[in-house]
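Example 9 (inverse folding). The structure is encoded as follows.
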């Protein structure tokens, strides 16, 4: 992070120095003979666009040297346009991410496509370096001995670097960093040399186009074009090497201004460098859009999400909700706020008093549902269930670290490694076959813990046919669902990954010496898991089997689907005629599962329908709040029902870049923070300091749960955040055109349980109300019995009295009764407390989580998840 910050500061310094040169040379700039010559400008622009298209052809030739399908030219154009937009996003990884994410849609291998992009970039840089060495004569640039040596060595060095052994080593290194399989470059050395010649020739063409552009605004001598071509190539190399600058912005211009010194005076060359950037962006973006449109590929407008600002065509207007069309938002009305395909389902009347003769589609009755809010104990329950397994343990997880420790379970088992509980079930002491364990993990570049877990199991001598680990690689979409199914009879839907930093006990201590600092900066965590037994387990197991058999890669046989009669078995509650009615809702990315080409957005469907029929209370407790459809649905529901209250509990400082600004924007768009019937809150933890008893340790309590309750009749728990990537489209969260285009339609694998408690014809069991009371009791510090009946004035006054008391307690340096404080848009914890009237210095508060401005703006902690485990382990050992 220090290097990145230093790089950004260097870029700003370079831009400031360039501006200073222009200001100091203002008289020379004004007196310079500027000209505008349309013909050279149009010719240079046309040549630049044609060369960009030719570059796509070269990239396709590079891709052809890898095994796998080779997409058509139009598909390659679309991928190229996506990577072009992505390079202007902060962080040098986004073009590679985009190439990988668009591979499937283009009909290419998701492994070969990013590898080919890496080599395409390598050939591009080497070709530019060769042209710079040949055309930008060292004598003209500096006249120094080192420059002459560099120029002479550029071409033979580039030829050496395109040897197949070198290129394959580069691909292998990138694959190890990304924790992917390394595809083999099948080209020979002469293939590499031939491609290098073509790329170098392309850079000669780029140089000619650049010379035409320069000559269109300033007088240029006839013999200057070789120098301008070499300078253009060398400035590109400088910008490419500066990975901290998106698209090389600032660095390329600074290098260009310096290299043009022999040709133009000070301020003039700086303005030429700046104008060339505008021209270059125009050729890449506008020219790319024109080429896509002419070629019949998707235009930029066609790949934008459903409701960009400023779009007014009739087709778009017909999809927007009409506020005057209804007095109450129904499900069909609310579905118009998002563009993903929807699942249709036959619905019964909203609130019938009698039980329907048969459940609606997808609903199972008679399930035993147990909510687990003490997350450390919940992990112990999972470990105990796994240890008792007789036939099978199926696990789907975002991440699974071999050192994940489970606490004591309800049966009193001692703490131990979760993986040891699995081995105890699979490998019995008497040598008889135990349970078959299948572990399905995220297998993409982010949080790919599969290789490390396989190494641990291999070192333990485990038979891979008994304990198999597979991965799902659909990057940038990830396996975000977290499920454990034991013997097909009970299931756990857990909120957190099997990583030590995500599991906390119910005390939520503000300062815990044993708590890891790696993932959430040492903050305690609140999460909710759920155990279910009954026919819903069959639906969860069927989802696992579908993904394991249809989307995963790695060793191990397939898993058989459960028999059809297993769904009818039910729990003891079902046989007695009781239990909870449950529906399993899924989010599934498109074009990943063979039988679900369009994927699924069932979790969003559930939220929109529940919000649309809400009468008195909507309670949302979630790690993120950035989904536009949810915000629009809340606003519509508040307009339709004057008695409706909304209680929203979210993080002050989320753990991923951009989410804080996104959720602040959603709240501002809907006026939620100022709405009289909306309360937005966050959670904090406070305790007397162990070092200075007269002071308080205070920190944010990180919310990792994904829970909602509506009218005490409908509830959901699971793994889906209230963001685009967990519901329907990651691109919909972005405000910028590039982000919305690149990530349009991308969504994760997620699972939620929906509890139907006296709604849709299902019996009222009190499960939804019990969930709400349990959560509120923890947050507010009020006994559950006091939260049973809605007061005459509504629920929000109860929350506001509790937070007012907590604010007063903290301001006086006392431990508050609960965890709730009002949410504030202020960026840092200290400023957040001061905005509430709490002065940490006067109150004797020691903030245990107090990130700097860089961390608040960029949330760089999540970036470490792309670093391989061995590197992270070494860095961690060094810090210790």
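The amino acid assigned to each position is listed next.
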């Amino acid at each position: 992070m220090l290097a990145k910050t230093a790089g950004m500061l260097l870029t700003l310094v370079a831009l400031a120095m360039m501006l200073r040169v222009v200001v100091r040379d203002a008289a020379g700039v004004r007196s310079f003979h500027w000209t505008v010559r349309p013909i050279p400008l149009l010719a240079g622009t046309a040549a630049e666009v044609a060369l960009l298209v030719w570059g796509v052809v070269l990239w396709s030739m590079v891709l052809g040297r890898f095994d796998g399908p080779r997409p058509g030219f139009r598909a390659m154009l679309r991928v190229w346009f996506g990577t072009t937009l992505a390079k202007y996003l902060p962080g040098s990884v986004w073009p590679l991410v985009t190439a990988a994410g668009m591979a499937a849609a283009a009909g290419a291998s998701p492994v070969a496509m990013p590898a080919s992009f890496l080599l395409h970039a390598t050939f591009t840089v080497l070709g530019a370096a060769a042209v710079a060495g040949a055309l930008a004569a060292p004598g003209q640039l500096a006249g120094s001995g080192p420059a002459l040596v560099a120029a002479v060595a550029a071409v033979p060095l580039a030829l050496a670097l395109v040897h197949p052994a070198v290129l394959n080593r580069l691909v292998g290194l990138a694959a190890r960093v990304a924790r992917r399989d390394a595809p083999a470059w099948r080209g020979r050395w002469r293939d590499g040399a031939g491609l290098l010649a073509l790329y170098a020739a392309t850079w000669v063409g780029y140089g000619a186009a650049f010379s035409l552009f320069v000559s269109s605004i300033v007088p240029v001598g006839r013999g200057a074009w070789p120098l301008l071509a070499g300078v253009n190539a060398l400035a590109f190399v400088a910008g490419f090497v500066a990975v901290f600058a998106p698209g090389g912005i600032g660095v390329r211009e600074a290098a260009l201004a310096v290299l043009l010194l022999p040709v133009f005076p000070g301020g003039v060359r700086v303005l030429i460098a700046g104008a060339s950037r505008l021209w270059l962006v125009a050729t890449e973006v506008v020219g790319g859009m024109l080429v896509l449109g002419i070629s019949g590929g998707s235009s930029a407008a066609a790949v934008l999400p459903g409701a960009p600002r400023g779009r007014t065509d009739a087709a778009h207007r017909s999809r927007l909700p009409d506020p005057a069309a209804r007095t109450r938002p129904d499900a069909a009305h609310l579905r118009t706020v998002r563009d993903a395909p929807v699942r249709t389902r036959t619905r019964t009347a909203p609130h019938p008093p009698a039980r329907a003769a048969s459940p609606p589609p997808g609903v199972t009755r008679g399930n035993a549902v147990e909510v687990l809010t003490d997350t450390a104990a919940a992990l112990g329950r999972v470990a105990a269930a796994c240890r008792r397994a007789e036939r099978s343990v199926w696990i789907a997880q975002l991440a699974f670290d071999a050192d994940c420790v489970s606490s004591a379970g309800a049966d009193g088992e001692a703490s131990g490694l979760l993986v040891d509980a699995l081995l105890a079930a699979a490998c019995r002491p008497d040598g008889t076959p135990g349970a078959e364990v299948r572990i399905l993990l995220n297998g993409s570049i982010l949080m790919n813990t599969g290789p490390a877990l396989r190494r641990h199991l291999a070192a333990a001598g485990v038979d891979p046919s008994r304990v198999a680990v597979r991965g799902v690689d659909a990057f940038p979409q990830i396996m975000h669902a977290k499920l454990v199914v034991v013997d097909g009879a009970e299931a756990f839907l857990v909120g957190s990954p099997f990583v030590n930093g995500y599991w906390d006990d119910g005390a939520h201590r503000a300062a815990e010496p044993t708590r890891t600092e790696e993932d959430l900066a040492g903050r305690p965590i609140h999460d909710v898991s759920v155990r279910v037994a009954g026919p819903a387990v069959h639906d969860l197991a069927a989802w696992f089997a579908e993904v394991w058999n249809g989307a995963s890669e790695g060793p191990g046989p397939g898993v058989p689907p459960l028999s059809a009669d297993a769904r009818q078995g039910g729990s003891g509650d079902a046989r007695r005629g009781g239990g909870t009615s449950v529906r399993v809702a899924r989010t599934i990315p498109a074009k990943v599962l063979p039988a679900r080409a369009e994927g699924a957005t069932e979790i969003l469907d559930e939220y929109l329908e529940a919000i649309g029929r809400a009468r008195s209370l909507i309670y949302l407790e979630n790690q993120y709040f950035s989904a536009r459809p949810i915000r629009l649905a809340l606003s519509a529901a508040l307009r339709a029902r004057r008695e409706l209250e909304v209680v929203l509990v979210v993080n002050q400082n989320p753990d991923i870049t951009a989410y804080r600004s996104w959720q602040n924007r959603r709240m501002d768009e809907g006026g939620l923070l100022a709405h009289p019937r909306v309360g937005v809150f966050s959670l904090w933890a406070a305790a007397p300091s162990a070092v200075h008893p007269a002071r308080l340790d205070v920190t944010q309590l990180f919310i990792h749960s994904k829970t909602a309750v509506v009218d005490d009749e409908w509830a959901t728990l699971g793994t889906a955040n209230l963001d685009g990537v967990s519901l329907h489209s990651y691109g919909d969260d972005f405000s910028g055109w590039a982000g919305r285009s690149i990530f349009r339609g991308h969504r994760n694998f997620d699972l939620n349980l929906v509890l139907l408690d006296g709604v849709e014809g299902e019996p009222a069991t009190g499960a939804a109300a019990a969930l709400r009371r349990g959560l509120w009791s923890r947050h507010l510090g009020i006994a559950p019995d006091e939260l049973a009946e809605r007061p005459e004035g509504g629920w929000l006054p109860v929350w506001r009295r509790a937070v007012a008391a907590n604010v007063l307690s903290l301001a006086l340096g006392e431990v508050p009764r609960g965890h709730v404080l009002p949410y504030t848009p202020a960026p840092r914890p200290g400023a957040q407390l001061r905005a509430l009237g709490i002065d940490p210095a006067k109150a004797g508060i020691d903030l245990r989580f107090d990130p700097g401005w860089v961390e608040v703006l960029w949330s760089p902690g999540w970036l470490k998840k792309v670093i391989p485990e061995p590197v992270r382990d070494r860095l961690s050992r060094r810090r210790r």
